Amino acid sequence: MNRWIIALFCFCLCCTSCVKDDYVYQVNNEVITPPNAVKTKLKTNEQYIAILYTNLFQKPMSVNNLIAASNVIQSIGDKEFAHDQIVGNFMNSPEVLLPSDEEMREDLVGFIELCYNRFYTRHPSALEMQHFLDYIEGNADVTPEMVYYSFATSDEYLYY
Amino acid sequence: MKRRKFIKKAGIAVAGTSAFPYILPSGLLSAKTTAGYAEHVVFVLFAGGVRHQESVGKRYLADSQNAFAEDDLDVEGNIMYNMLDGEAPDRKIAYGTTIDGQTEGGQPIPRILGQTLQQQGTLFQEARSSTTSHFAGASALLSGNYQITQGLRDRPFNPTIFEYLRRHMGLAATDTWFIGNTIGSSVDLLNYSANTDYGWEYGANFLAPNTTFGESGEQFLAYAKDYHPDERSAIVEMRDFLNKSFITSGNPIPGIKNTEEERQDLKDFIDDIFARKNGQGAPLRMPPQSDIPDARTIGYACEVLQWFKPKFLSVNMSNVDACHGSFTNYIKALHRADHAIGHLWNVIQSTPGMADNTIMIVAPEHGRNLEPNILQDLNDWYAYDHSDENAQRSWCLMVGPEIEAGRVIGQEGNPIGNTAQCVLSIAEAFGIKQDVQGAGLLFSNQSLFDLM
Q1: Is B133 on the interface with A (CB under 8 A)?
Q2: Which of B249, B251, B266 sits opposite A81 (nearest CB)?
């Protein structure tokens, strides 16, 4: 009988014990992405083309075209050259979705963020942001297409 | 006293050179020490499995079909009359082109060389290949070694001739080319090896032109945008910044790399080919009869030769492998490959800088079986695979400067030369034989020149 009383007493203690409040730090919630590229796996030809096409056209590539394009990459020894040619080919298409020059220069920070997010799936570091701000502001002839082109043919874009 | 001083100084000089070898701007440890025989070498991998009997044996149907046929098929003759001496068969001709209303394949392709390559060069008519597998054979032709444990989807374990040449001669990427007949069968893995002392830094430019310039290439390569040089330079500048940022956490991208200038040259070349393919400018230099992919591959190889004038180019063929299922298609492919090689030699001899200054080597990767399989084609002729001792019978033809004309080496029962020795022969032709021997990764330390 005593055991039951002690058990009931303990249960009541648990129910009425104090509960620690959640701390509220009063900062905004943030989606955390790596500050720098931690990418070690090289994309296959198919992965590269599929991602590139989606990044530039904002829609998936057909399977037949995907195979044809990856065959073309395979048929050329210098893969970086092959990528260059294919990006150059895509840039000739009127269907590539590019912001206008005005849109880019109106919100340069947003544009640079967009490029790093879209092509590298990460945020730019402060150094990277500043470099591109200075570069684009200092070169009136730089277009969004040229920036996209440089991202799409860069080394980091070949990795995931 | 003076003598002592001299010996001391000489000793210091020798020790210094050994400890700190002179590093050339190209990254070489030393310059080549011997003179070569030619400025250019073209190496044709007559691959796909070429049966000795129908090629240098000139036995046509006599040793392949006669024993199994009700008709008299004891027909001998040479169906490779641009390369080899000997009269063509006088009947049962099925390897040529077809004229409407006449026998299928009954019209032989006209000879295109005034003098056969055999008359102009040296033929190892009874050589050996130590493998009967396509990839191992092609890999041995290019690396000079048989890698028995070589996986089919892996790059060669030992350095290829491209890497030897680029590393020991300091050649640029566009100085060495491998023109593949396909992107299948791991052919695209043959332009450099997995060897860590050589590898992709010394690899050759590769093209599989039937794909690069085919329908897919037309769709994805032909219309690459041309940027103004200022725009191009801004793109390169931004990309360089991105790449430098990545170096801190990324890995080097493996693969053959051309310089910016070489890439521009490559782009101009590709644009030129597409333009001419679409009727703008001079027609492409295809062999007169180019109705099989191998012939077109040779035609594109001719274009690469004319544009880049590389020090070394190797081109691969494989259509003779139709012999697994159709003997008729096999002899057709053999006949056309001979025609295409004759055309290639003509192009070399009409290219300024390469004429009279180029050695050409032609060798199959292996042969085919003595006995047929069970498959018969439309002519009721039996097909042949490649797995027995007869499939190790091979040959090699060399032509060009410093190669004796009209010489034939070896005979049945007395084989001389192994096709894997082509690598050291090419190295010798360029004057880097000792460097390649020094790497110690060859099947044999003798070149074919040593056997002449």
Answers
A1: no
A2: B266
Distance of residue B155 Cα from the nearest chain A Cα, in angstroms: 13
Q: Could you tell me the CATH number of the domain that includes residue B230?
A: 3.40.720.10
Output the CA–CA distances (angstroms, integers) from residue B239 to A84, B130, B165, B370, B372, in the order listed.
Answer: 11, 48, 31, 58, 58
Crossing angle of helices A126-138/A108-120, nearest 10°? 120
Tell me which residue of B103, B45, B84, B54 sits closest to B330, measured CA to CA: B54
Total structural domains within chain B: 1
> Which tokens sit at A142?
């730089």
| Beta strand spans in B72-172 (E) | 121-128
Helices (H), B278-349: 293-308, 327-349
Q: Does residue B249 surpass a pLDDT of 70?
A: no
**How open is the CA angle B312-B175-B255, to the nearest 5 degrees?**
105
**pLDDT tens digits, B164-205:** 999 999 999 999 999 999 999 899 999 999 999 999 999 999
State yes or no: ipTM above 0.90.
no
Does residue B28 lie in a domain region?
no
Q: Are B40 and B361 in contact (CB under 8 A)?
A: no
Strand partners of residue B205: B177
Asked whether residue B13 is assigned to any structural domain, the reply reads no
Substitution target in B179, B246, B272 with the highest count of A β-carbons within 10 Å is: B246
pLDDT tens readout for residues A109-146: 999 999 999 999 999 999 999 999 999 999 999 999 99
Domain spanning A45-158, CATH class: mainly alpha
pLDDT tens digits, one per residue of B374-399: 999 999 999 999 999 999 999 999 99
